Amino acid sequence: QNNAAGISGVAPGTKVASQRIGYFDPSLNAHLTSDQWCYDGILMVNITGIVRLCPWTFNGGPSLLIDHAINISSGGDIIFPTGNNNTSTISYPGNNPNVTAVGAMSMCNERKSINSCDQSTLFPGSNYGPMTGPGTAGKISIVAPGVNIYTTDVSWGTSSYLSNFYGTSAAASFVAGIYAMIRSENWCMDGFEIRNLIEQTADKVGGYSYSFTGLNGSWDPEMGYGRINAGNALVWAHDIYRQNEQVNVSKSYKSQHKIFAGENVDPLGIKGVGSYSILSTTSINFEAVEGIDLEPGFEALSGSAFTAKIITSYTCTTGYAHFKGPKKNTPILKYTRPKTTESEDLSSIKIYPNPVNDVLHVSFVLDTESKVEFSIRNIMGQRIGNNFKVDNYPKGRNIQTLSTINLVPGVYIVDIKTNSGTSHFRFVKE
Questions:
Q1: CB atoms near residue 136 (< 10 Å)
Q2: Helices 64-72 and 35-43, interaxial angle, to 10°?
Q3: DSSP notation for 396-417
Q4: Which of 118-132, 143-157, 375-389, 399-413 has the lowest mean pLDDT?
């Protein structure tokens, strides 16, 4: 990444493992595979947290064996293309309800078809549907770019790169990359939660009606929930926002950053304004590292159980300290990290300006004279050059300047390590 060579993927730095499920037989001029090979390929990496991209459709029709592999796979992180036949039927296995079915779009925010603006004749168009509405199975989930895609190439030509990769397989690859980014940002989200998040934060583009209502908002037979928006998805993956819900299913939410709940906490403005109400007999658990904010509109009704816990490290298996939810109309509670000294309070550490040009200022408070370390990393976690400083600082308010003049524009992380622990802050270099 940023090395002036080749391309940078949607989720650079994530690891990729490939599983072969077939081969091309030149004597038959055909690609050969079998139900068993597909089954083995899906389950070969059946590990919690793995995102599985299956950029193929199966002309043999529904298979009990392949369906079984999909249905028993962990986490729901399975992405399939809708197919490239320009029909209103999603190709198998993309019509399995436990996968994310991805359609292809042109650069003009329209479903790829024979009449789309790209005028590409490499494939007829992206499959879509059903025309009767999203239902529960066999529906298009989302669309992503699917024409004139740059990618690496090992078999289609003499070059190491390909400038016109196409189809719903290309589109599905973008969505798999966003899955990987979200999983990197919030490891505790399962695949179904990530799919819901991607669908809910999609852009309603192209002048389509989006007249149907699905589980995750307005839906259109040709575009599904709309065009992927990685930025929106990452905002919701970074912090958890619960709003405008009448909750009757017990669930746990975990975040390495913050959890917000109330009637108007969504920074994207996608969720409708409305209270977050935990109904009777329902148990909701919140765990977060940086804070849990319960704003006006949060309510845990009589007979419900609500848990809020601030954790010092980000795991998905820590225990809870339970207490019963307050009755309706009781005062709103706000939970923050327990504060023993000012230096342990994240609010005592400030970085500015953000975005930054040449110099980043770090303001912090110490309760005693102590050593403090500063370092800057890129979003891949790699420490940047000589951007590292260690020194002793006196008790009270201190300001340290860090040079950013040699950083290329992008997103970075500054780490500030004190006796109380390490704090991490993101900033943008313009």
A1: 8
A2: 10
A3: EEEEEEEE-TTPPSEEEEEEEE
A4: 375-389
DSSP designation for 227: B
The CA distance from 81 to 101, in Å, is 5
Tokens 């966003």: give the residue: 178
- DSSP label at 13? T
C-alpha span between 126 and 119 (Å, rounded): 13
Dist. CA 163–CA 349, nearest whole Å: 46
Are the C-beta atoms of 112 and 153 separated by less than 8 Å?
no
Cα(195)–Cα(201) distance, integer angstroms: 10
Cα–Cα nearest to 276, from 240, 244, 234: 244
At 273 the three-state DSSP class reads: coil
Q: Are 130 and 170 in contact (CB under 8 A)?
A: no
Q: Are 360 and 414 in contact (CB under 8 A)?
A: yes
Number of C-beta neighbours around residue 215 at 10 A: 12
Q: Whole-angstrom Cα distance, residue 377 to residue 413?
A: 5
Taking only the tens place, the pLDDT of each residue in 53-111 is 787 777 667 888 888 888 877 556 789 999 999 999 999 999 988 889 999 999 999 99
Report which residue type is found at 48.
T
Q: Which of 111, 202, 121, 203 is nearest to 164 (CA)?
A: 121
Helix (H/G/I), strand (E/B), else coil: 233: helix
What percentage of the chain's residues is helix, strand, coil (to nearest 5)?
A: 15, 35, 50
Give CA separation, 180 vs 1, 208, 314, 321, 352, in Å. 16, 29, 18, 32, 30
